[in-house]
Amino acid sequence: MKQLSKEEALKRISAIDVEVKELRKIIESEEKQGPILDRLHSFEDACRIKGVLPNDIVRFPSPKNDWEIAKNAEDQLEFIIEVAVEDWVCNWNDSNQKKWIPVFDFSSAGFVFYDTNCNYTYTYSGLGSRLPTQEMATIIGKRFIHLYKLILTKPKRK
């Protein structure tokens, strides 16, 4: 590659940035086929749908211990839920809006999905973002149980 001047380099970066934005639009338009939960089975799926790289989402791209792995699981789950709910916004001022969460249990069978729970206006100790439907809370809870387990069993920071 020939040596570029600073001005030429900035022009190329600008042109590449425009091209990247156009490519992301193509990816997003192709990914927007069918219901979101039919397309969202992994953190990598969420990244593909949004046109981002996984390492741009997690705070520890190369985790060094279990605590950092658990923090990455939090980032992944939050991002997955952001993608899953699409344009829905949890409105704590709307007492008529249902807000669903998956519920888990530690039993003799291990860490298991137990049920879903719905609240209209108040919060209590729970994990993760609220979801707009019971179906979504059930699917997300079951499909991403491994992330919930990492978060709920997170070791103390070292």
Give a structural overview.
The chain is of the alpha+beta class. It has a two-stranded antiparallel sheet. The termini are far apart.
Layout: helices, strands, pairs:
Layout (H helix, E strand, L loop, with lengths): L5 H26 L4 H4 L3 H8 L15 H20 L13 E9 L2 E10 L14 H10 L1 H8 L6
Antiparallel strand pairs: 1-2
For the terminal residues, how far apart are their CA atoms? 45 Å
Beta-strand content estimate: 5-15%
Largest sheet: 2 strands, antiparallel
Uncertain segments are: none
Run of helices and strands: HHHHEEHH
Helix percentage: 40-55%
SS element count, helices: 6
So what's the overall shape?
globular
Radius of gyration: 20 Å
Q: Order of strands in the sheet with the most strands?
A: 1-2
Number-wise, the strands total: 2
Q: Please state the oligomeric state of the protein chains shown.
A: single chain
Class inferred from helices and paired strands? alpha+beta
Taking all residues together, what is the mean pLDDT?
87
In short:
The protein has 158 residues and is of the alpha+beta class. The protein has helices at 6-31, 36-39, 43-50, 66-85, 134-143, 145-152; strands at residues 99-107, 110-119.
